[in-house]
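Next up, a chain.

===
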Amino acid sequence: MAKLPTSIDDAVRQFIERQKIFFVATAPLAADGHVNLSPKGLDTFRVLGPTTVAYVDLTGSGVETIAHVRENQRIVIMFCTFQGPPKILRLHGRGRVVEPRDAEFNSLESQFPKFASTRAFIVVEIARVADSCGYGVPLMSYEAERPQLDAWVEKKGIEGLRQYRREKNRASLDGLAGVGE
């Protein structure tokens, strides 16, 4: 059942590219800290190389992933099929946060569609690629992307997004540093 490739080969990359959703999990070092698991969608994920991936971190109500990655770098990204043959794929690695003020930001931004709500990129150096059966994952059909994010971003505007991040994204639930804006 489970295989443990050491890098992302063409078959894994193609599997990733077919998925409409992925999940990101992180945790703080503190034993009483909040573990975070976030669903991600849209066209926000890229395989940059055999051991490097990145995704767009869009403005949201929380900033847990950024805070946890800054504190300890630990991250796992999970993909699973909801259509076709069952499969779960996990990418375990060490992440880093790239914000607009960082030199690497523009280079990363050029590899993704432009999102007005981009607050950072999460870049992950993969240490382990693991797949498993996914037999217990239900079959479900993709309908469409939701329109709410674009409408919310348009209503907020660029300055409104900055203000929102200043108010909501400075610190995690556990008080760890969030975004600098």
Summary: The chain has a mean pLDDT of 95. The chain has one domain: 10-168.
